[in-house]
Specification:
This protein is α+β, with helices and mostly antiparallel strands and 277 residues long. The protein has helices at residues 2-8, 11-29, 47-63, 94-98, 174-179, 181-186, 196-202, 225-234, 259-271; strands at 36-40, 43-46, 68-71, 75-77, 84-92, 105-112, 115-122, 128-132, 137-141, 146-148, 157-160, 188-190, 208-211, 237-239, 253-256.
Length: 277
């Protein structure tokens, strides 16, 4: 009976189950004194990152043993040119988590060919899971019913990623965007340093999200694939920092709840220099 149930499980349902397993690990290990593993200057993984990824990979491999997987911590496995590849970011916001902040996300997405067909992003501490089947997007609170995600720019809150690297500098620096009179006149900045903020755009809790360094959809982004898929399915406007489709162009992201907000932010970005074209 269990085997039959798992075989009937949709990719979207599997993504939800996988992030919930990872979120449980993140939640259980919160507050512990965790080993750190350096990755690059100022960047590291904790034992919670590794444990959450192992738990997620166990779920995915048991349910879809033929699929390829890319984990942020363990790297790629399976055929290099696999048609189906799961993308796993087990703990987005490691720096937050390591200092006792609960602003983190657990992300899982499925790339089939050149598109994301299922994705989920979990908030381990609120218990919410934002998810999409590639056509529509919902949020599930705990074991409650799913509610459709409805973007809204009403909050005027724009989350801006200020973490390095800054590949478009000196033409564009996110910190300079915050100081522009046009930005201050229409928006209020927030910085949570986690892709949880991208899911919040889809949910109407942020008007927009801007990052210079995001590689966009580019087929295999463990960091952004889930959030982008959620926002696109919810009806947000999503482009690169140059206004081009996220899978082309120069990278970065401008994710907005509606066209007016997107156009206004893109105009501000373009006013800073050549990054906007």
């Amino acid at each position: 009976m269990v085997t039959m149930s798992m075989s009937m499980e949709s990719d979207a349902q599997l993504a939800v189950r996988a992030v919930r397993v990872g979120a449980a690990v993140v939640r259980e290990m919160y507050g512990e004194s965790l080993a750190r593993f350096d990755k690059s200057a100022g960047d590291f993984a904790t034992a919670a990152d590794l444990a959450a990824e192992e738990a997620i990979l166990g779920v995915l491999r048991a349910a879809r043993p033929e699929d390829a997987v890319t984990g942020e911590e363990s790297g790629a496995s399976g055929a290099a040119g696999a048609e189906r590849r799961w993308l796993v970011d087990p703990l987005c916001g490691t720096l937050n988590y390591a200092v006792g902040s609960m602003l983190v996300a657990v992300n899982v997405a499925l790339r089939v060919g050149s598109g994301i067909t299922a994705a989920a992003s979990a908030d381990p501490f609120s218990g919410e899971v934002f998810w999409t089947d590639g056509a529509h997007a919902w949020v599930r609170a705990g074991d409650g019913a799913d509610e459709r995600l409805v973007p809204s720019a009403g909050s005027r809150l724009v989350d801006v990623n200020l973490d390095p690297p800054f590949p478009h500098a000196p033409g564009f620096r996110a910190v300079e965007l915050l100081a522009m009179p046009g930005f201050a006149a229409g928006y209020r900045p927030r910085v949570i340093s986690s892709t949880l903020a991208v899911a919040w755009v889809a949910a109407g809790r942020r008007a927009a999200y801007v990052t210079d360094g995001g590689t966009g959809l580019r087929l295999d982004s463990v960091h952004f694939a889930a959030g982008i898929a959620l926002c696109e399915a919810a009806g947000c406007v999503v482009t690169g920092i140059d206004g081009r489709p996220v899978h082309t162009g120069t990278g970065g992201l401008v994710v907005a709840a509606d066209p007016a907000t997107h156009d206004a932010l893109l105009a501000l970005v373009r006013g800073l220099g050549p990054a906007g074209g």
